[in-house]
Task: structure prediction
Amino acid sequence: MYRLEYPWLLALLPLPILVYWLLPPYKEEQDSVRLTFFNFISSALGLTPAPGAVVPRTNWLQKILSAVCWALIVTALARPQFVEPPIQKIQPGRDLMLALDISQSMETPDFFTSEHRRIRRVDAVKQVVSDFIRRRKNDRIGLIVFGQAAYPVAPFTLDHDACLKILGQTDAGMAGPQTMIGDAIGLAIKQFNASDAKERVLILLTDGNDTGSRVPPQRAAEIAKQNNITVHVVGIGDPHAKGEDKVDYAALGSIAQATGGQVFHGENSTELERAYATLDQITPQKFKTLSYQPKRELFTVPLAAALVLLTGYHLLMLLVSLGIRLFTHGDHPNEEATTSSVLKVRV
Result:
């Protein structure tokens, strides 16, 4: 699309006509010598004296070029531009961290597929979380896995394919046999320190209770709240199990409540899918669309056209003048010598 950056400058187009009409003509007076016998001298030499008032001579081409060049210069001042189609860029409005428990207990094969095939907890979690990541196209997503220790395996990124690939290579027991929930929350807080997103959400999934984190989970949750991080917790597995394998929903609920989050039960594949579907609804994608239209300046085109026309005109007039002089010298070789001796006086 073509446009003018300053279209109001086109109002200058009639300016030369207004100047011609309103301002008085330019006059210049020069001293002269009056000779009473000048007519006798000029008639004796066969010359016709020039009139007293000398008016600059113009031709039709000069008048046309003056108007055209003025129009081109005014057009260049108005800055013609070619505006290209807008380029849109989506900027995420939320950073989403997924913390997944891959302790040894995630090896337990107590989940079932839709075909009633028994699978491990970790496989069910990877399938549901992968679908969740695919739906979050406009969120920056990071990934943490934890067991006996917590490890950042993917920083906040829009490259969700990379997150899915890393998630696919993750397996139970890779981080050790225990469950350090407090350390996982603490590591997530450190990851969020490098984030400038207004909304920060941590979704923590575990199938057990904390087994001796350096930072107690409740204290980690309080620190998360101070850093404006909302923690949603998904508990999976049997809440009636014994020992470290028992899912302590009371402790998980206190973590979520401290940060304004929610706690979800995922004791089987259906509940796990429902939990992440609910998380997808309560954390709608937020993003800003930035639009930019590249502009190409075209003022050089009319400016160059005006320069070419003026240069061409003066070259043409120079050639015409040289041709006239050569023709005149060929017909009257002694005329220059004769006229050079005549005193030309202009009034």
Remarks:
- The chain has eleven helices and 13 strands.
- The longest helix spans residues 300-331.
- The chain has two domains: 2-84+296-340, 89-292.
